[in-house]
């Protein structure tokens, strides 16, 4: 049974088509990153999963339960960190957690939860005085209440400094090791790259790619960037490299020392071999995979590089 099964989900807000026949699965036990630019439909999708928003068309199941008719069962088994959190100024962290326990009908230990998110010092402090990062940590602790089967985190690193973001990633890993499925939306490539088994990229309400980070990287045309430092580059050499079958682009990056930057689809040895055949001495070379940022840009900008 998939943890999340979305089939033909469409959502219109009046004239605005927020989700357009969206289908995807999140398998049990995986960490799934849900990426997309502003307005792509990430929050709308999450709101449908939790039955805060009703679909115009389509089927949605979460943990095997229909999202519309069995939302109570879903919510009691799911930990949610919503976008645009709101803490209650007059309640302490402990009271927030007690409230979360009560509404889910589960028992948990507020102190242990706050230790996990590094907020135990604020146990009995009112949330009115919290920084943004503290409030976000508290919301995360609330999502963790009762060891949920599924965690849905909407932009979880909002308001967190780099340390907080790292700790958040660590918590995602721990929760996943304990057996939870994690579904989180983000604009932040690093977050997704570091913890996700698979990534789905949403654009204008449609899923334009779903794959592992590695698979997505391989799918964009600039698969690997090869940077070669040589003793000389002339036009003839450059043209010869450009006309190799696996090369999509080649350019002179630097004159001193002469450096070629080559986008290769397949093996880099053909490039190095061609240079050698032409009597060009290779001093040094390095390869870099397309970053997830490149992948994201290639799938979500108007003129797709594919
Ligand atoms: N309640 C609403 N009423 C009208 N239009 C809405 C409503 N909620 C969302 N939309 C529209 O639906 C589209 C998708 O919005 P959504 O908030 O789901 O995107 P998102 O990917 O979560 O964006 P962001 O990254 O900015 O949070 C947008 O065009 C948005 O303007």
TrEMBL record:
Spell out where the chain crosses the membrane: none
Q: Which domain of life is it from?
A: Archaea
Q: Enumerate the spans annotated as ABC transporter domain.
A: 4-229
One matching Pfam family: DrrA1-3_C
Among the GO molecular function terms of this UniProt record, one is: ATP hydrolysis activity
Keyword terms of this UniProt record: ATP-binding, Nucleotide-binding, Transport
Question: Does the keyword section mention Transcription regulation?
Answer: no
The UniProt similarity line reads:
Belongs to the ABC transporter superfamily.
Name of the protein this chain belongs to: ABC transporter ATP-binding protein
Query: Which lineage?
Result: Archaea, Methanobacteriati, Methanobacteriota, Stenosarchaea group, Halobacteria
